[in-house]
Amino acid sequence: MLRTVGVEEELLLVHPDSGEPRPWSAAVLDRAAQDDPGQAVFQRELFGQMLELATSPQRDMAELGAEIVGCRKEAGRLAGEIGCAVAALATYPLPVDPALTRHERYHWMAGRFGSAMVDWFVCGCHVHVSVESDEEGIAVLDRIRPWLPVLRALSVNSPFWQGRDSGYASFRSRLWARGPSAGPTELFGSAERYRRRVADMVASGVILDTGMVYFDARLSTRYPTVEIRVADVCLRADTTVLVATLIRALVETAARDWRAGRPPPDPSVSLLRLASWQAARTGLEQDLLDPVTMRPRPAVEVVRALLAHTAEALADSGDTVGAEEAVAQLLHRGTGAREQRSFLERTGSLRGVVVECVRRTQG
């Protein structure tokens, strides 16, 4: 049976004309609750200018794509009722002083992490893929590690930060990496070792609980899934679907390798950090580190290597044509980071970039 896939996207709330951020997530959630008292699609986030949407688990990628588009449109409708709009921006391009959401957990974080909290005014995309057990989940996490930077490169959508071009395609990932538990991990080998590692991290007192274990990929704390957390929120919904499609294929490929007794690749965390940095720096514009050799290779070739690595799983799920066409379209059109830079060239202002991104988010 096909594995289910669910997507969580974090969006920014902004004024539709000026692009100014609006800390009105509570009002949006009130509107959503009035329409559907039991709704679980939209959730609050760390800052009041952010809104999270979550899809239901899907097996068909066309249905997943339709749900993402529908959720984005509904978020835009709810936001529009109170005079704002939603934008799929992984960082806000202009200087901003974000408003912390009122919640005990978030205030603990503010007291613990200080001014670094401002760096976390960023929006990611988290993809959940079902697994049969924690043991299978850990086998998957151990085997997908070298490929995660390629997913980051496909999703890059945060070139601007605090009023300037950061020089990165995904500056969000660099800001997020400043957290004490974020980033790539070593091999775990078993679910028991994973649980012991997480327990030791919580016992250190540096983080509050298991929910603050911000590995690039982890066992979900809420669902029987692995949760892949490397992607920027994507400017266009079709890029989100592509990333989710490739993640499911990676998970399935890794699970098959585990069942066949094939050992996981074992690049060092140091090399994985370099691969992640390179993906964040240039996206698909230059070289990436090849997941097998950990040496520079043109990004287009690395993306094709990912398609080849997951070819059997893509074929079995009926996703081969869709994935190949989506990759070709993305390579032709460019990533969200490239599009944002082109918006700046055309509009001449970062506010213009935000307004253009509002249009693309729901388009």
UniProtKB/TrEMBL annotation:
Its EC number is 6.3.2.2. It is an enzyme of class 6 (ligase). It comes from the Bacteria. It catalyses: L-cysteine + L-glutamate + ATP = gamma-L-glutamyl-L-cysteine + ADP + phosphate + H(+). InterPro entries: GCL_type2/YbdK_subfam, GCS2, Gln_synth/guanido_kin_cat_dom, YbdK. One of its GO terms (biological process) is modified amino acid biosynthetic process. Keywords: ATP-binding, Ligase, Nucleotide-binding. GO terms for molecular function: ATP binding; glutamate-cysteine ligase activity. Belongs to the glutamate--cysteine ligase type 2 family. YbdK subfamily. ATP-dependent carboxylate-amine ligase which exhibits weak glutamate--cysteine ligase activity. This is Putative glutamate--cysteine ligase 2.
